[in-house]
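Backbone-to-sequence.
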């Protein structure tokens, strides 16, 4: 039985209230799995409404079958701090495709506890385009993020214990424990501790205070679990064997002679894999209208790869007619990484790309006052202002150019807000279509699949259009050249400035066959095409400052860190956790959004 949508009005109800009203009408997840083409022994049930898909069992049955689904990526323009509704659009599009009679699925990342309890909220969609059930999705789901956090921290436990023992024991005693001296340099420890909250006070810490039995005293710190290389590995792995091999290659530190110290050197890679043996299976949930949604992995696009898992897409494209996957933040980072990293790993090629835009974001990029999380936007955002919208469309056109650079003609989706004006929509459509894109207005937040009908029809048309997808650069090119190409051709910058430390690291990476030909995964702000969040619109005349470069050999890419990007976000003064609660009568979680 599917949800009777007319009984729910998103303009009058919060997302958690809509979810609570809809969940009794959801299909049993076993039915969703069956309709997706999964056999009973290919799902692992977590109650009535959540399951995991046994990827190994499905690949054993379908591994030799080529992908048959039309593959669609959803990206966006440069967002405001409030987000522009990529996940909501992904869900609405899946619902719209279902309304047209297509067997459609979607893939999104698992919400991180950091944003969920901070200012952005849960990444579950909104209104009548949600992934359900909301509470379990937002509060740990089947434990994947906990497994990532524990696997990461187990490697840190192995590292710090080894450093303590090497300090306290001579070579003979180490040998009796079957250990060889790794001679780890405490100033060159690459790994950090992980947790799934925004905790700025843990960015830089000192550990090992006390005596000789209290650990090794050194500077350390935390990053949010989404920024862990282990999370990126979960997103990139294609099998148990691939997962195991990637974990072994993680560089946790360097020795005093400059040699990399890996998880395999610490003999912790096997135990890390054991922590992830369930997490590698994608989670299966459903839209508010009953279509299958695969929820798997959760790396952010500003500090990591920003994609749901390769495994989820490889499974769904072998089972469905259409599969819609979401890339984090704007096309400059989310889609660029989908295009040049994820597609390389999966072997999949997109048939269509959707760019989500809002009038709110376009006005910001046109010069309107800043949008602040937790505060009501200025009145200009609710007033008709064609001049601001037209000026802001420079940002939209930059993202259209990014997608066209990959060989596809994008579909621009104007995510309708109640404060929009039809004249503003017409202006955006005219400018986007003049630049070679399709452009539609979608009202999926308020009307669900019916509100996304025009978007779904445009995506179907885009999938039928011939295209010539190709990568931005070939990996044989030097890392330095490929970084400059991203800055010039994707961000619109004039060049790159490498700090002395970054330049030294880059030279070493280019000389090492293990890293010289890895893809580039930029870490930069999501709020600007540049490195500076204050430079909105389509900034010109700037140079990207790269402060550091990190080699994630397990995940399989090199990460230039640009500007003041933080791998551990901070919690704001008015965070969402102040409004989340447990109803003592029903036991339902309230206040999630």
């Amino acid at each position: 039985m599917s949800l009777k949508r007319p009984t729910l009005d998103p303009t009058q109800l919060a997302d958690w209230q809509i979810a609570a009203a809809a969940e009794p009408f959801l299909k049993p997840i076993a039915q969703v799995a069956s309709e997706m083409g999964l056999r009973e022994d290919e799902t692992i049930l977590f109650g009535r409404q959540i399951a995991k898909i046994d990827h190994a069992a499905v690949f054993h049955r379908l591994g030799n079958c080529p992908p048959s689904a039309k593959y669609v990526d959803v990206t966006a323009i440069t967002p405001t701090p409030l987000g522009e509704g990529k996940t909501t659009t992904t869900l609405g599009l899946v619902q719209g495709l279902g309304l047209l009679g297509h067997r459609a699925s979607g893939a999104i990342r698992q919400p991180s506890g950091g944003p969920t309890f901070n200012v952005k909220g849960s990444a579950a969609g909104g209104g009548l385009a949600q992934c359900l059930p909301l509470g379990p999705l937002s509060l740990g789901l089947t434990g994947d993020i906990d497994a990532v956090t524990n696997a990461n921290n187990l490697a840190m436990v192995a590292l710090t214990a080894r450093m303590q023992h090497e300090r306290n024991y001579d070579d003979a005693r180490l040998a009796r424990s079957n250990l060889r001296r790794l001679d780890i340099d405490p100033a060159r420890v690459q790994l950090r501790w992980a947790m799934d909250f925004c905790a700025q006070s843990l960015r830089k810490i000192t550990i090992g205070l006390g005596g000789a039995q209290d650990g090794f005293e050194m500077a350390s710190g935390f990053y949010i679990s989404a920024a862990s290389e282990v999370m990126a590995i979960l997103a990139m792995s294609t099998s148990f064997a691939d997962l195991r091999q990637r974990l072994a290659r993680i560089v946790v530190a360097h020795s005093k002679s400059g040699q990399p110290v890996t998880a395999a050197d610490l003999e912790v890679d096997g135990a890390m894999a054991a922590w992830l043996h369930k997490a590698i299976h994608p989670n299966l949930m459903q839209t508010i209208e009953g279509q299958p949604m695969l929820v798997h992995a959760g790396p952010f696009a500003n500090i990591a790869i920003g994609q749901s898992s390769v495994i989820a897409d490889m499974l769904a494209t072998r089972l469905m007619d259409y599969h819609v996957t979401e890339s984090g933040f704007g096309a400059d980072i989310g889609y660029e990484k989908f295009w040049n990293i994820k597609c390389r790993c999966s072997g999949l090629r997109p048939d269509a790309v959707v760019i989500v835009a809002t009038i709110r974001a376009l006005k910001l990029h046109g010069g309107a006052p800043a949008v602040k999380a937790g505060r009501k936007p200025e009145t200009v955002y609710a007033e008709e202002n064609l001049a601001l919208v037209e000026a802001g469309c420079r940002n939209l056109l930059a993202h259209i150019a990014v997608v066209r650079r990959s060989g596809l003609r994008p579909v621009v989706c104007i995510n309708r807000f109640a404060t929009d004006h039809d004249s503003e929509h017409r202006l955006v459509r005219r400018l986007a279509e003049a630049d070679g894109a399709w452009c539609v207005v979608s009202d999926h937040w308020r009307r669900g699949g019916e509100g996304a009908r025009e978007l779904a029809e445009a995506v179907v048309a885009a999938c039928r259009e011939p295209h010539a997808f190709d990568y931005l650069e070939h990996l044989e090119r030097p890392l330095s050249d490929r970084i400059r190409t991203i800055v010039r051709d994707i961000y619109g910058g004039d060049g790159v400035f490498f700090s002395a430390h970054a330049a030294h690291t880059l030279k070493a990476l280019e000389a090492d066959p293990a890293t010289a030909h890895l893809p580039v995964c930029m870490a930069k702000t999501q709020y600007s095409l540049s490195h500076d969040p204050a430079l909105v619109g389509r900034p010109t005349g700037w140079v990207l400052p790269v402060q550091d470069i990190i080699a994630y050999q397990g995940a399989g890419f090199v990460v230039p860190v640009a500007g003041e990007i933080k791998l551990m976000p901070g919690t704001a003064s008015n965070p969402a956790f102040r409004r989340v609660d447990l109803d003592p009568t029903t036991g339902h979680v309230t206040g999630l959004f």
